[in-house]
Amino acid sequence: MQYPVNEVFETIQGEGVNTGLPAIFVRLQGCPVGCPWCDTRQTWEQKPENEVAPKQVIQTDGSIGRWAWFDAKSLLQSFSDGAFSAKHVVLTGGEPCLFDLVELTNVLNQAGYTTQLETSGTFEVKCSDSTWVTVSPKIGMKGGLAVKSQALKRANEIKHPVATSTHIEQLDALLAGVDLTGKVVCLQPISQKSHATALAIKVCIARNWRLSVQTHKYLQID
């Protein structure tokens, strides 16, 4: 199976449970969710005129929306070509669950990599059993897509963007009846706003949830 890839780069995971872990990010092209605060809008459309050769998306600026086709084997080869040393791979987007990721994650796991998937939860999650699934539920977005119960059930980590108390109320409604046993719930302030950060801290303390700070933005790294 082939996947449209916007960029492949090595960095430090900046948010969620795996904060601080060296990681290879594989950003897939395509997303119909339409989050108003999205900072990777260049991944929304898979425009034919933006298709490039695979080497042009390795450790380069993906902000212009170019993309290239990769299968699992060629993606693994790109890690070697880029001299990447990290052993944790984060599949993100865009919306990576537009694609069946079972083959890709199994190949990566068999090659000795741990895998993580970052998704909005609006599509069914299809990946290896050992993949760490981070669902960042996008509720009431422009694309009109509902968060799927299958995605919430499969999630290891539920990382919710927060700006106002309404976002907490939406999360509570979404998680009503969801078994959170063994899952980590994180609140992540949107755009480092002071009000959002204070709100997230207050709720995390009250509920013994975890605060997720986008440390890569403070460090000014990808």
What does it look like?
This protein is an alpha/beta fold and 222 residues long. The chain has six helices and nine strands, in the order βββαβαββαβαβαβα. A nine-stranded mixed β-sheet has the order 3-1-2-4-5-6-7-8-9. The longest helix is centred in the last third of the chain and has 14 residues, at 194-207.
Strand order of the largest sheet: 3-1-2-4-5-6-7-8-9
Terminus-to-terminus distance: 27 Å
The major beta sheet can be summarized as: 9 strands, mixed
The string of secondary-structure elements, in order, is EEEHEHEEHEHEHEH
Number of helical runs?
6
Q: Radius of gyration from the CA trace?
A: 17 Å
Can you give the mean pLDDT? 93
Q: Which stretches are poorly predicted, pLDDT < 50 over at least 5 residues?
A: none
Question: What proportion of the residues is helical, as a percent range?
Answer: 10-25%
Summarize the structure.
By secondary structure, the protein is of the alpha/beta class. Helices cover 25% and strands 22% of the residues. It is globular.
Topology, element by element:
Blueprint (H helix, E strand, L loop, with lengths): L2 E10 L9 E7 L39 E3 L1 H10 L6 E5 L9 H9 L3 E6 L12 E4 L13 H6 L2 E6 L2 H11 L8 E6 L4 H14 L2 E2 L3 H5 L3
Parallel strand pairs: 2-4, 4-5, 5-6, 6-7, 7-8, 8-9
Antiparallel strand pairs: 1-2, 1-3
List keywords for this structure.
globular, 222 residues, alpha/beta, 25% helix
